[in-house]
Amino acid sequence: MSRRKHAEWQAEIYDKHAGWIAGTRPHMSVGDGWADVVSRLFDRISQALAGEPPSTKIVIIDIKEKYGELRVEILAPVGPETEAAIDQAILLAELRSECTCDACGAPGRMRSTLGQSAWLAVTCDDHQSGYPRTVGERSPKRRIKDRFGVFEITYDRAADSITKTRVAGRREAE
Ligand SMILES: [Zn+2]
What is the CA(33)–ligand 1 centre distance, in A? Predict the structure, then answer.
């Protein structure tokens, strides 16, 4: 994978999706290794908007790295189905960021510096310098709670998809 410079790939993504982006284009404070993660996210949001009126615009408030992982904040005036699809796209992107080197885009793991106020970063084996402690999984997990119960979400990087397993909840109500 060729290394590409920040301003270049960000402008390319914003230009590709200019039709549904409203307002300013905030600088994305993420490493160049996540260009593909962000690109997939925007493609998925674009697909999710297919059922909305063509005039629908979305405000990108913030795209940044925090505690080692991608954080996405947007304002989307859309219906509940589209909103669910966008939420899913953001979840996929965040989980992908947790196992993608933010320097080069190769498979990586969350690692940290030593000490009490440790810094977190997702790195591959080649870019782990300065982050001696491995704290994340190769297949990142999330625990989420909704009105149907508590679920464990596991991300499969190769398939770029998630599996959802119920760990507690109202199975009897189904
Ligand atoms: Zn790397």
Answer: 7
